[in-house]
Design goal:
By secondary structure, the protein is of the alpha+beta class. The chain has helices at residues 24-27, 31-41, 52-59, 74-77, 93-117, 127-136, and strands spanning 43-46, 68-73, 80-81, 83-87, 145-149, 154-158, 169-174, 182-184, 187-192, 197-202, 209-213, 216-220, 226-235, 238-241, 243-248. It has one domain (42-248): q2cbj1_9rhob like domain (Jelly Rolls, Sandwich). It is built from six helices and 15 strands. The strands form three sheets. A seven-stranded antiparallel beta sheet has the order 1-11-7-15-5-4-2. Strands 3, 6, 9, 10, 12 and 13 form a six-stranded antiparallel beta sheet that branches. Strands 8-14 form a two-stranded antiparallel ribbon. It is globular and about 50 Å long.
């Protein structure tokens, strides 16, 4: 086990000791193993975070006009092929609850990573406090989104940065069923350091979520100490069908 893993204790409580209202699925995960996976490879899978019913209900939101602040056609911007929509505030209740509950569990990891990388930024315990920091810097536009891919569509390798304040982890949830709703369309991550490059294909089932690095993560150097590993993510070309995904980004955009 990596010596970088610290104080791995996760409880469903607020910092003041009260009971936290969070999706019950989150309590069933091995958060020590999730933290270790993030340390080792920059990503970790949360199996069956959403039920099939919840996935279908979220996918059904995509054709609607209401509830979104903008629609992006990827080919127009050189992002790949496919399209996505940014949700407007207020977010759908399920996504708002997940965003808050996941942030609370990921903030200690994000703070430790910054310390290991020598980054003088710390994140508050609660999402609302971090979003207030974003608003003060002019980052006021919500970033959670839903993506839609069809045959031949793909997403170029990229990083979701959006402004000065960036939370170093984000979450994607696969809403469609591989092999039934679509083929191809794998979630891909790459890692680059001064000496090495690596690519991972992260296998997901319907309802699975992947927590992954937005920009940089600390990685153990060959001679001891920590080095910066630059991460990017994307989606491989869809061969058939239709694929929907929800993305939960914790910092808002300018």
């Amino acid at each position: 086990m990596s010596p970088s893993l610290i104080d791995c204790k996760y409880e469903s409580r607020t910092p003041g000791g009260g009971v936290r209202t969070a999706p019950s699925q989150l309590d069933s995960f091995d958060w020590c193993a999730i933290e270790q996976s993030l340390d080792d490879s920059g990503n970790a899978v949360l199996p069956r975070l959403l039920s099939v019913r919840q996935c279908k209900e979220l996918s059904a939101l995509y054709p609607r006009d209401e509830g979104y602040r903008s629609r992006i056609v990827m080919a127009r911007h050189g992002f790949g092929r496919g399209e996505y929509k940014y949700f407007a505030y207020p977010l759908p209740p399920l996504l708002d609850q997940l965003r808050h509950a996941l942030y609370w569990r990921l903030a200690p990891i994000a703070n430790r990573w910054n310390r290991q990388l020598g980054v003088g930024v710390s994140y508050p315990d609660e999402l609302d406090a971090f979003l207030e920091r974003c608003r003060e810097a002019g980052q006021v536009r919500p970033t959670p989104l839903i993506l839609q891919y069809g045959p031949g569509d793909y997403n170029c390798l990229h990083q979701d940065l959006y402004g000065e304040h960036v939370f170093p982890l984000q979450v994607a949830i696969l809403l469609s069923e591989p092999g039934k709703d679509f083929t191809g369309g794998e979630f891909v991550m790459t890692e680059s350091t001064a000496r090495n490059q690596r690519a991972d294909v992260v296998a997901l089932r319907q309802g699975d979520a992947v927590v992954f690095t937005v920009n940089q993560r600390p990685a153990a150097g060959k001679r001891g100490g920590m080095r910066k590993a630059a991460m990017r993510h994307g989606v491989s070309r869809l061969r058939s069908g239709k694929r929907h995904t929800v993305g939960l980004i914790f910092h808002d955009a300018r």
